[in-house]
Amino acid sequence: MSEQRLSEASAWKYLIETLTMLAVDARDQTTWLDKYRLETDDLALDFENAQNAIAILAEAWSYRRRHGVAPRTH
Questions:
Q1: Is residue 47 within 8 Å of residue 22, measured between CB atoms?
Q2: Is pLDDT above 70 for 1?
Q3: Using CB atoms within 10 A of its CB, is residue 53 exposed (0-12), middle (13-18) or buried (19+)?
Q4: Could you write out the DSSP letters of every residue in 43-73?
Q5: For residues 61 and 12, what is the distance between their CA atoms, to the nearest angstrom?
Q6: 3-state SS, one letter per residue, for 36-47
Q7: DSSP 14
Q8: How confident is the model at residue 73, as a pLDDT?
Q9: pLDDT given at position 2
Q10: Phi-psi category of 37—alpha, beta or left, where left has phi over 0 and alpha has psi -120 to 50?
Q11: 3-class SS at 30?
């Protein structure tokens, strides 16, 4: 993931995709890694990068709570 800040929608998508790939069985992970010519460590690094997405979502939630803004439902 680049150093550029994700939008809230992109953060949700990134987080869901990362968690989905971690949740599948080893065979599916291997197939996915081979398809994109990635190393096994890339799965772990992707999950570490997802922490940025979590921070963005937490910040958005906190802002909405402080300012009485309803959460988005998309």
A1: yes
A2: no
A3: buried
A4: HHHHHHHHHHHHHHHHHHHHHHHHHTPPPP-
A5: 12
A6: CCCCCHHHHHHH
A7: H
A8: 53
A9: 46
A10: left
A11: helix
Rounded CA gap, 23 and 20, in Å?
A: 5
pLDDT tens digits, one per residue of 18-64: 788 888 898 998 888 888 787 888 777 777 777 777 888 888 888 88
- Give residue 27's pLDDT: 92
Q: What is residue 4's predicted lDDT score, i.e. its pLDDT? A: 60
Polymer length in residues for the chain: 74
Which whole number is the average pLDDT over 5-28? 83
* Residue showing tokens 């460590």: 41
- How far CA 11 is from CA of 18, 45, 64, in Å, comes to 10, 16, 16
